[in-house]
């Protein structure tokens, strides 16, 4: 699974583009709320737990010049926005929206059911990639990852064991990536950066391969995934922080061939899942491997 332990201090990150991205998240909450926020009854306790951990504990302590709490009010000194921290008085929608408006991380709540299966029961997600989260509500980890080649045969049992063994207070992280060929928008719930392209040998597949990729609008999309267990609800929090780096910038820094080699080394089925047939040959050419 490629995971490693990480300190709690690295869980929520703030960088120089914070204000710009938070403004974008607020716009998305207003224009595409159904993609960004949803919760089911089993997630009620977990949402409260996460709100307390992030809004009351993590942000004011980790970034005290940016966030503070006084007289029951949380203040974001960058945006000027204020939020209640009287958790008992707040509903789930309010708390999920507040999380989305103050951090760049997207949160997915994997709540244990009566049979010990972890199921998606809530999310606060403004920067999804190829994932209409509401369509995944109530699904188990295995069901969500069903399209991923080799997940059931090679990874499924290991992920299930890891979820069951996770202890509160422990944070683990991993990286995921894809090639995004249609601009620098992070909100891509219906994007096809991953998933099987049309079957090789069909006219549709040939047409896709003939499409020219504009590498001025093509990016390496990296996602930093963090997993942690909430102590009361035992919910596994799956947190995603997304970054985009222009392919032209990677080439200019001298790393183009390294990226092309990494893409070329993927197993065939996984390469198809990452849509390598769509952009692969052109990526090799733009980075000098053709």
Features:
290 residues, alpha+beta, 3-stranded antiparallel β-sheet, 36% helix, globular
Summarize the structure.
With 290 residues, this protein is of the alpha+beta class. The protein is 36% helix and 22% strand.
Protein architecture, described:
The protein is α+β, with helices and mostly antiparallel strands and 290 residues long. The protein is 36% helix and 22% strand. It has eleven helices and ten strands. The protein has a seven-stranded antiparallel beta sheet. It has a three-stranded antiparallel beta sheet with strand order 3-4-5, covered by helices on one side. Strand 9 and strand 10 form a beta hairpin. Helix 3 runs parallel beside helix 4. About 3% of the residues have low confidence.
Which helices and strands appear, and what pairs or packs with what?
Layout: E1 4-6, H1 18-31, H2 33-36, E2 37-39, H3 44-62, E3 67-70, E4 73-76, E5 82-84, H4 92-100, E6 106-112, E7 118-124, H5 141-144, H6 151-165, E8 171-180, H7 203-210, E9 219-229, E10 236-246, H8 247-252, H9 256-264, H10 268-273, H11 276-286
Antiparallel strand pairs: 1-8, 2-7, 3-4, 4-5, 6-7, 6-10, 8-9, 9-10
Helix pairs in contact: 3-4, 9-11
């Amino acid at each position: 699974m490629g995971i490693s332990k990480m300190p709690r201090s690295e869980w929520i990150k703030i960088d120089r583009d914070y204000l710009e991205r938070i403004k974008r998240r607020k716009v998305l909450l207003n224009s595409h709320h159904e993609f960004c926020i949803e919760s089911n009854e089993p997630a009620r306790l977990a949402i409260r737990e996460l709100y307390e951990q992030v809004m009351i504990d993590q942000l004011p302590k980790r970034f005290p010049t940016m966030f503070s709490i006084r007289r029951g009010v949380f203040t974001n000194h960058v945006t000027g926005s204020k939020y209640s921290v009287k958790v008992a008085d707040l509903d789930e929608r309010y708390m999920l929206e507040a999380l989305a408006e103050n951090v760049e991380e997207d949160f997915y709540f994997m709540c244990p059911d009566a049979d010990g299966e972890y199921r998606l029961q809530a999310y606060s997600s403004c920067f999804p990639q190829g994932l209409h989260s509401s369509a995944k509500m109530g699904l188990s980890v295995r069901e969500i990852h069903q399209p991923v080649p080799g997940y059931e045969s090679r990874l499924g049992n290991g992920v299930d064991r890891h979820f069951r063994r996770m202890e509160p207070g422990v944070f683990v992280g991993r990286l995921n990536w894809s090639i995004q060929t249609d601009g620098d928008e992070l909100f891509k719930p219906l994007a096809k950066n991953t998933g099987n392209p049309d079957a090789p040998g069909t006219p549709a597949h040939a047409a896709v391969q003939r499409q020219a990729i504009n590498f001025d609008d093509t990016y390496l999309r990296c996602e930093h995934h963090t997993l942690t267990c909430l102590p009361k609800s035992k919910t596994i929090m799956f947190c995603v922080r997304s970054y985009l780096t222009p392919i032209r910038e990677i080439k200019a820094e001298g790393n183009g061939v390294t990226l092309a080699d990494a893409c070329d080394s993927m197993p065939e089925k996984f390469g198809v899942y990452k849509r390598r047939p769509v952009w692969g040959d052109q990526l090799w050419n733009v980075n000098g491997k053709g």
